[in-house]
């Protein structure tokens, strides 16, 4: 009698095109590949002299950050500008008592200003779904991170990095290491990697940083880094989000680094051509040793470049998906 | 004299289930079956194809007044209770100010009496302001009509303070109601901890948040020798713990909120804030355990745990919304769905709605023998109705059933022989 909501009904239009980008969960493989292919074409372009394309000329994109972020918001801004859009950056603190209605009111005001797209980061899981489904359904919403739930553009830039380094997804063994519990990046990557068909996804963390029943997401759980890293093609480190630590999850950063930090010795246990990823910003000496972060197997800077291309791809796809659904809807 | 004719009278307390007539005079049941001699019928209610039963007793209805009248009022919710066939409702001390003074207890009853739609039995706070340290004036509160005492979900963390509360309540033979919840384990949690919460990235509330408190409460109840009841159990393991204590001779009872019998954590997928409730909707296994406990009578009563909210309270990202569902008017139809599904029979359902909660509270209600107060619900078990914001009488429109058609419709509700709700008017 009561149906739970299907993710795709809220992010795909009736023709199966992306109109919001909220999560990688349940997205069909053709959409994931379309994002990667489109991003690839933008990457070729970004090495040219003129880096701009007029795809979003005249569109207004609002960067709506309810949580501090410089990196993600600036790559979104750059991506929007390369697509010739006008960009408005709004940083809204949620530390004040403002909740619920005020979020709604903020968005309705921006809608009245004829914004075409919202890039949303919010500390509450499900905030992007809430905005896309219940507040401003006719404005493309890109989830730039909601609570612990999803960070789909970060996941897709990692997919692009893996595909460009490894050629394909089939047969790959991927390890995701660190603070899985608080990580929206880990969740979005797991969903994307499963759809793209890798051989094995491993998560490596102490039990205090593992969400309950994480195995149900289709991953293998390791609490021992040395065992988990064995024969991996991709070692994906997570940032230890110190600001989210609100209870006795870890004894110390030093003990964490000893057990779950990536150093050159440990990296030798992975495949010789393994790549090392990190979403940044890096805590050197906490998650990762400097020699590894700056070493030949690291793709950390490549990820940043790929991030702009992926965000350009998702923005242009969502704007066109919104347009199609609005035309056929009216 | 009122005659209710040709209805199917179901009165589990007296083992009655038969088609008969019932006569009411001066607020009391005066005869069943044969018309008493020298009687004049002033009003006849035809109850053909309808069920006539004792008025429903709901063990948990959050009335929101005083303090939260933007959500609902005593007048609005007692009217909704009458429309739901509920004649007696127990109101937890979660008002503002809380029910820790005779003034608040009396105010609630005065307003309920003025509305005259349902009996309201306030539950007094166990400690002042529910803060968990200073005992509330229980004996005075009792004199002002408090039926039982509870600290609601503001669990008393200090075990010695809790023990003192229980001993004081035991001194006067007062009933203590536990809504078991260890708040250090709840922390920032907003839903059941499991695969679904992990997937959705919502902070989970582990099963142990309930079971740890059930276990501690059982040991202290035994030590204090107090009458105790567990309200709105959500985990099957809690039932196991309560049964273990019962097998050792401890007399404790338990109820379940109706929505825990129908929904699980899976329903929160998609972030629908209507499913944000406290205690959280738990796993399929827990739901199965709760249903089974109804059958085995390890859970004696079913309540609505009605929590009306204004629209804004639910219109935000899931974790920022307030917990609770508006469940008063869907209580009976959903109970009937349990009967239709063959889980329990209609007599067992009405028992869990009437005489069982009356027995838990130790009140003289929930049965219809000659001489009993004529609190009566008459409903059509086959009639369907559409749940909409307009069809709900409650000020709280936060029902997950909006837009759904439900079977089972209250036709008349009588409170001490007075018609307080009727669709026939």
CATH topology of the largest domain in chain B: TIM Barrel
Q: For the record, what CATH class of the largest domain in chain B applies?
A: Alpha Beta
What is the top-level CATH class of the largest domain in chain A? Alpha Beta
How would you write the strand order of the largest sheet of chain A? 7-6-5-8-9
- Total beta strands of chain B: 18
How much of the sequence lies in strands of chain A comes to 5-15%
The CATH architecture classification of the largest domain in chain A is: 3-Layer(aba) Sandwich
Task: Report on the architecture of this protein.
With 330 residues, chain A is of the alpha/beta class. Chain A has 12 helices and 9 strands. In chain A, strand 3 (117-122), helix 5 (127-135) and strand 4 (140-146) form a beta-alpha-beta unit. The longest helix of chain A has 30 residues, at 300-329. Chain B is an alpha/beta fold. Chain B contains 13 helices and 18 strands. In chain B, helix 1 (74-83) packs across helix 2 (102-115), helix 4 crosses helix 7 (208-224) and helix 7 (208-224) packs parallel to helix 8 (236-247). The longest helix of chain B is centred in the middle third of the chain and has 17 residues, at 208-224.
Q: How are the SSEs ordered, and which strands pair?
A:
The complex is a heterodimer of chains A (330) and B (425).
Chain A: H1 7-11, H2 29-46, E1 60-65, H3 71-82, E2 86-91, H4 101-112, E3 117-122, H5 127-135, E4 140-146, H6 152-166, E5 173-177, H7 184-196, E6 200-204, E7 220-222, H8 225-228, E8 234-237, H9 253-260, H10 264-267, E9 275-277, H11 290-293, H12 300-329
Parallel strand pairs in A: 1-2, 1-3, 3-4, 5-6, 5-8, 6-7, 8-9
Chain B: E1 2-11, E2 16-25, E3 28-32, E4 43-46, E5 51-54, E6 56-58, H1 74-83, E7 86-91, H2 102-115, E8 119-125, H3 138-143, E9 148-150, H4 159-171, E10 175-178, H5 183-186, E11 191-192, H6 195-200, E12 204-205, H7 208-224, E13 227-230, H8 236-247, E14 252-257, H9 284-295, E15 301-303, H10 311-314, H11 331-340, H12 346-353, H13 355-361, E16 376-386, E17 405-415, E18 418-422
């Amino acid at each position: 009698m009561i149906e739970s909501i299907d993710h795709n009904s809220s992010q795909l239009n009736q023709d199966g095109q992306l109109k919001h980008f909220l999560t990688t969960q349940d997205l069909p493989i053709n959409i994931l590949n379309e994002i990667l292919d489109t991003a690839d074409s933008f990457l070729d372009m970004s090495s040219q002299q003129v880096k701009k394309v007029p795809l979003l000329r005249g569109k207004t994109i609002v960067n709506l950050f309810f949580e501090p972020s410089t990196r993600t918001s600036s790559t979104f801004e750059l991506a929007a500008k390369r697509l010739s859009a006008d960009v408005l950056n709004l940083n809204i603190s949620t530390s004040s008592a403002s909740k619920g209605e005020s979020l709604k009111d903020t968005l309705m005001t921006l809608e009245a200003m004829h914004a075409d797209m919202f890039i949303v980061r919010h500390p509450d899981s499900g905030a992007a779904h809430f905005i896309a489904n219940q507040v401003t359904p006719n404005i493309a919403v890109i989830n730039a991170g909601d609570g612990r739930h999803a960070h789909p553009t970060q996941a897709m830039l990692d997919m692009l990095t893996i595909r460009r380094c490894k050629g394909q997804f089939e047969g790959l063994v991927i390890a995701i290491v660190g603070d899985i519990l608080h990580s929206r990046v880990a969740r979005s990557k797991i969903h994307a990697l499963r759809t793209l068909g890798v051989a094995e996804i491993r998560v490596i963390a102490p039990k205090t940083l593992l969400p309950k029943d994480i195995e149900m997401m289709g991953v293998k759980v390791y609490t021992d880094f040395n065992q988990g890293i064995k024969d991996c093609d991709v070692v994906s480190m997570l940032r230890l989000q110190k600001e989210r630590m609100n209870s006795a999850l870890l004894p110390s950063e030093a003990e964490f680094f000893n057990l779950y930090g990536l150093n050159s010795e440990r990296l030798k246990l992975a495949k010789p051509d393994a790549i090392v990823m990190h979403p940044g910003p890096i805590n050197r000496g906490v998650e990762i040793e400097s020699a590894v972060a700056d070493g030949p197997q690291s793709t950390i800077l490549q990820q940043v470049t790929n991030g702009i291309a992926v965000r350009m791809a998702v923005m242009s796809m969502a704007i066109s998906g919104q347009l199609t659904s609005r035309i056929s809807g009216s | 004299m009122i005659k209710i004719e040709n209805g199917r009278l179901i009165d589990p307390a007296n083992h009655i289930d038969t088609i008969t007539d019932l006569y009411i005079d001066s607020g009391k049941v005066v005869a069943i079956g044969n018309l008493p001699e020298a009687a004049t019928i002033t009003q006849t209610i035809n109850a053909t194809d309808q069920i006539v039963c004792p008025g429903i007793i709901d063990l948990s209805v959050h009335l929101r007044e005083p303090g939260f009248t933007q959500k609902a009022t005593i007048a609005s919710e007692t009217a909704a209770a009458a429309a739901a066939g509920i004649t007696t409702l127990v109101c937890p001390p979660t008002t503002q100010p809380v029910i820790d003074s005779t003034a608040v207890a009396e105010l609630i009853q005065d307003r309920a009496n003025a509305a005259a739609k349902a009996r309201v039995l306030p539950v007094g706070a166990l400690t002042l302001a529910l803060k968990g340290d200073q005992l509330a004036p229980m004996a005075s509160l009792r004199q002002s009509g408090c039926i039982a005492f509870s600290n609601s979900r503001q669990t008393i963390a200090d075990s010695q303070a809790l023990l003192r509360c229980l001993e004081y309540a035991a001194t006067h033979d007062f009933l203590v109601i536990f809504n078991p919840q260890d708040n250090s384990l709840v922390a920032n949690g907003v839903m059941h901890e499991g695969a679904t919460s992990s997937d959705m990235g919502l902070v989970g509330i582990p099963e142990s948040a309930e079971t740890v408190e059930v276990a501690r409460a059982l040991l202290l109840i035994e030590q204090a020798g107090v009458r105790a009841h567990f309200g709105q159990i959500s985990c099957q393991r809690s039932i196991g713990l309560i049964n273990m204590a019962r097998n050792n001779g401890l007399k404790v009872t338990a109820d379940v909120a109706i929505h825990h019998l129908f929904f699980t954590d899976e329903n929160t997928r998609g972030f629908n804030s209507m499913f944000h409730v406290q205690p959280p909707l738990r796993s399929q296994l827990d739901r199965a355990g709760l249903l089974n406990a109804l059958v085995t009578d390890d859970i004696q009563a079913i309540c609505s745990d009605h929590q009306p909210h204004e629209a804004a309270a639910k219109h935000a990202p899931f974790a920022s919304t307030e917990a609770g569902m508006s469940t008063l008017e869907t209580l009976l139809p959903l109970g009937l769905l349990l009967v239709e599904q063959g889980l329990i029979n209609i007599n067992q359902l009405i028992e869990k709605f009437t005489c069982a909660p009356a027995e838990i509270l130790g009140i003289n209600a929930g049965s219809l023998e000659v001489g009993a107060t004529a609190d009566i619900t008459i409903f059509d078990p086959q009639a369907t109705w559409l749940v909409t914001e307009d069809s709900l009488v409650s000020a709280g429109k936060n029902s997950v059933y909006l837009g759904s058609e439900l079977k089972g419709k209250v036709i008349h509700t009588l409170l001490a022989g007075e018609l307080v709700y009727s669709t026939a008017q």
